[in-house]
Amino acid sequence: MGIDIEVFLDEFKADWKLSGKAAGTVSAYAVYVRELVGERDPVAVTLAQVKVWLADSPSAETARYRGRAVRAFGKWASTHDGPQWTWSQSVPLATVSPTPQPTITAHEYSEVVGRTTNLRDRTAIELLWSTGMRVSELARVRIEHVDVAGGFVTVPRSKTGKPRVVPLGAAAVRACRRQINGRKDGSLLGMSGHAIQLLLRRLNAPSAHAWRRGWAVQALRQGVSEASVRAAAGWSSGAMVARYTSAVSGELAIAEFRRAGS
User: Fold this and answer.
1) What confidence score (pLDDT) does residue 160 get?
2) Could you tell me the CATH number of the domain that includes residue 47?
3) Which of 48, 92, 159, 248 has the least CB density, counted as fewest CB within 10 Å?
């Protein structure tokens, strides 16, 4: 009887989280590694078996994610007395054709703002446009997290578990100042993540992810560096910036060259 894969997966997930990486990602990776190993001894898994498993994936996206899971676990295992999958970095990653992602524009933002009927809803929309925060993060914003004088919001716990600071635009600062109205603490909006999603539907507005992408694109268009966008968004690498802005990469390059030549 071989070693139970769970012995390794528990430590793999713990180390991943302790390094500050997203808990959701490693949980998904663990599911795929567990599925790959099945009843086999994890030490006996071969590259050929992995390739067959990947080829059996229901989609290219799933095959690519499975491949990334095996690579990540194999890399960790090589330095943590896990199964020595020396072939893990040779696992092929399926090619996935990029698909256009819904991205809100400045014009759409103006239209949505015009459909708000109260200060709270207006503040929520201004924050989505100005900060690119995730819905869960926006729902957790408290008054003490907002510095209207400094023009920023502190996100105490983002997806990676680390805090970050997000700048506020002028319109968002004005909305937050009115929403706070002298209060010192408490929830800024008093809305759950689900309530914010319902608000977007009620206003016939794009999804929260479209606002996050629109914020990133708008920031890059205005000359904000990719490193700063990455830091404000809470992304650990430039991969998400590239993914969110791939559709307008040519336009952004032209704008940058124009700024450089002016």
Assistant:
1) 62
2) 1.10.150
3) 48
